[in-house]
């Protein structure tokens, strides 16, 4: 029996069905579940509502999916159930081949040598791949880098799925990654790199956003990643949370919500489950939740109109996952981190907003979540309403804590079954067509370039003509050599004369820079992140790209040389400057 709903046509697999022959048996048994779809009209469905995206495709009967889920859960022990709600990280760039140092890290974390052994010992439901760069505000809880190249990640995810295939539950893993792009980008080598979220906000074209995120989804699916912990749905407040910054689409809740919806649709079309974060909103805070518990001081009315607006939009669009934030939400449950708050996650998110999908914690190895031992913290998070425990600081202790709590009756088995049911619905509600070939990775620049170009914003200076004439010299604050070199190359291709001395100076600044990094006398100052620093620049021309990606530098070159009109508009206020000088 089939029901019909409106959805985007999705040609690719949510996970890689070609990893091993053993993975293919899942799909033969599960039947023709349509690619990229969320189960609807089921209490434990993977989405809040049926997505309304145009196009009509058949969906598997929700009752059929529910029956499959119930059959799987019926065979699960408490230990199986406890494993399904855990999504730890592991040391190593291979699932099975590890060095002595890597094995030592995994022993300390989980009492095993390799990532594959971790999957099998704890009967895991998922695993997150991590890594960070030098300008990453999330580096505090990223102790290892196990992403290097598309080929390496594909081999790693294949090995992890092969380990999952040997488990009694016989369901694939959720394999997640924080591929937000911008300052939080886990895999850069060989990938088509999208610009930051704020770039999308400046372009203000959800159609371009959806196309770009579909491209990203296809490439993530090709390397075996089926869950992306993006988009960031946080609305940036007037103070401009430094840990969120350009990870946000901007300060306007409605406009940011449109971007969130487009990102969810795009990733679903690419075969990847999107995640809205950090519920109920990290954009109006000043503290960093990696190191302390930020306080959300918004009134309940402002929480509804600002912070929650983007989450409501994402839920309506069918977002399958929401990440809870380590946030003290004063208007709802003062003094309690949202991660552990039933008032926030059950009463507000589930009952009031109607979200029925998977709720995942933010990293449980972040300071606010580590005030209790790993087992106790995992149980508290589940009781609050989380379904998936991300990055527990000790996998064995978290797993045993859940099992012991069920045995003692402090964690009702029904609550654990409910969480696992949602996770399995997410897994089984996505489709089984073949994943994109690995050769498609890094081939979608043409899908992203229009977005990056459309974001370039002039906040001071005239429009309709080249912003620089004659010889041009490009300078940059320390650590910006990659962006500087790309801009030089792009300027030359646009016909500009680039010199090493003299000339009109175009100066680049970016994430973390201060007034000391500005260049006195620069004809043009360009900010490649949150552009608030431009308020302190004396340059006659001020430009924002919000990102230092290669495609952003290409778009900047076209604007500087007059080959393209700057049509971007700053998605945040910059003191003393207009959103754009190009009406």
UniProtKB/TrEMBL annotation:
It holds the Pfam family Glyco_hydro_3. Keywords: Glycosidase, Hydrolase. InterPro entries: GH, Glyco_hydro_3_AS, Glyco_hydro_3_N, Glyco_hydro_3_N_sf, NagZ_Beta-hexosaminidase. SUPFAM superfamilies: (Trans)glycosidases (SSF51445). GO terms for molecular function: hydrolase activity, acting on glycosyl bonds. The keyword Repeat does not apply. It is an enzyme of class 3 (hydrolase). PANTHER family: BETA-HEXOSAMINIDASE-RELATED (PTHR30480), GLYCOSIDE HYDROLASE FAMILY 3 DOMAIN PROTEIN (PTHR30480:SF16). Belongs to the glycosyl hydrolase 3 family. This is Glycoside hydrolase family 3 protein.
